[in-house]
């Protein structure tokens, strides 16, 4: 599993192999069972970040009517930032739940500060990874707004085909902004074409 982490350090830093090994041994890696929550909506969030080595984590909110609305899925080699304004104590607006047994790198503010002080290139790596993630989110949001439900499904098949097999259809439909019935019709229509 640590090979994935080492890949990112090699890609975004010029740390020596020894420094990379030292860092990979120092980071906290935890296993989570399917159904485990990293954070629940309404809880007071602790500032943490996660990096998925293996598994799938869903970000969702339960609206006023009790309906779950999925806003993201995080899979291998994706960071899951959980931010809370330190000046303002605010309850979490989202839940993050493991859809599969997952193995995650877990970072907290204190351990990150120590690592950044010891290895300044890690802060640069984190910033670059967050810039890439933000850019992807912006592109996905713009595409979501201008596309039809069928175009959104085709985009998922092209960009993240594993999601179709890994997540329940009703959660995928919610993520795509449609009902499960609409998603079924789109799948059937595409299969017949």
TrEMBL record:
CDD domains given in the database record: CAP_ED
Signal peptide stretch: none
Keyword DNA repair: no
Parts forming coiled coils: none
Record bears the keyword Nucleus: no
InterPro entries with a match to the protein in the record: cNMP-bd_dom, cNMP-bd_dom_sf, RmlC-like_jellyroll
Every Cyclic nucleotide-binding domain range: 11-43
Domain of life: Bacteria
Keyword field: Activator
Protein name in the entry: Crp/Fnr family transcriptional regulator
Species of the source: Ectobacillus funiculus
